[in-house]
């Protein structure tokens, strides 16, 4: 079971370690040492929000600003995580951690609901989620330590999260023949970007995507 979960998580390993290194370096450059960086990755574990959080910490943002920003950046989790309710329903003692550790990339590995036979699917999903979390923490610690001894320009590092999202999208596109959800996401996002601008499009886009996919699902169920 451990070996199968590890093999499943390998596509995330390289991405999370590299992204974690980028985050760790930025934390070091902002004046926060390895304990701060590791604590954020252990207890927050929010990827892109952690990158944004560096600016919030160093800029002395208020709690209200931090809360609103977090909701804006991570609003997408409220929508795609709904599809995992049935999958995680009977996860028992693993459920709290599975909910906490559900990131975009972990979702892409577990969203098909499949688990290897001959073992506990709940344990398998826990191990995949745990491995992904460990990769992020390891990358964070390495990056923070490197940032202390290898000074270099950090310009462009924040784009690494965008690159990982593109890679995850590409993997999902190649893994399935049904491209309607992906195209729905692209078109709805583009429409909301044009209508609301780059600072305000995220939540409207998520709402529109959810509405369109719900209508499409209802139509398919009626067709069946």
- Report the order of strands and helices: HHHHHHHHHHHH
Q: What class, by secondary structure content? A: mainly alpha
Overall strand count: 0
Radius of gyration: 19 Å
Largest sheet: number of strands, sense, barrel closure:
none
Residue share in β-strands? under 5%
Q: Total helix count?
A: 12
Oligomeric state of the chains present here: single chain
The stretches of 5 or more residues where confidence is low (pLDDT under 50) are: none
Mean model confidence by pLDDT: 84
Distance between the termini: 36 Å
Question: What structural keywords apply?
Answer:
12 helices; 0% strand; globular; 224 residues; mainly alpha; 2 domains
Question: Would you mind describing this structure in some detail?
Answer:
With 224 residues, this protein is mostly helical. The protein folds into two domains: 2-158, no CATH class; 177-224. Helix content is 75%, strand content 0%. The longest helix has 29 residues, at 121-149. It is globular, with a radius of gyration of 19 Å. The two termini are 36 Å apart. The model has no long low-confidence stretch (mean pLDDT 84).
Helix-strand layout with pairing:
Blueprint: H1 2-29, H2 34-43, H3 48-58, H4 63-73, H5 75-80, H6 85-88, H7 95-100, H8 104-110, H9 121-149, H10 160-175, H11 180-196, H12 202-223
Concise summary:
The protein is an all-alpha fold and 224 residues long. Helix content is 75%, strand content 0%.
């Amino acid at each position: 079971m451990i070996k199968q979960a590890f093999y499943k998580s390998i596509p995330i390993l390289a991405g999370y370690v590299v992204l974690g290194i980028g985050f760790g370096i930025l934390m070091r450059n902002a004046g926060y040492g390895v304990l701060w960086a590791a604590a954020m990755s252990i207890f927050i574990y929010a990827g892109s929000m952690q990158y944004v959080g560096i600016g919030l910490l160093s800029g002395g943002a208020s709690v209200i600003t931090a809360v609103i920003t977090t909701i804006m950046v991570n609003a997408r989790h409220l929508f795609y995580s709904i599809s995992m309710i049935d999958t995680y329903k009977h996860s028992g003692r693993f459920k709290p951690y599975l909910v906490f550790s559900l990131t975009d990339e972990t979702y892409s590995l577990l969203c098909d609901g499949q688990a290897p036979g001959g073992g506990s699917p709940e344990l398998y999903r826990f191990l995949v989620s745990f491995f992904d979390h460990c990769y992020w923490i390891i990358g964070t610690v390495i990056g923070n330590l490197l940032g202390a001894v290898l000074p270099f320009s950090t310009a462009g590092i924040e784009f690494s999260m965008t690159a990982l999202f593109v890679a995850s999208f590409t993997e999902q596109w190649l893994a399935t023949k049904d491209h309607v959800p992906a195209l729905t996401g692209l078109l709805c996002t583009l429409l909301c970007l044009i209508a609301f601008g780059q600072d305000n499009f995220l939540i409207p886009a998520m709402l529109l995507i959810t509405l369109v996919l719900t209508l499409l699902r209802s139509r398919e169920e009626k067709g069946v």
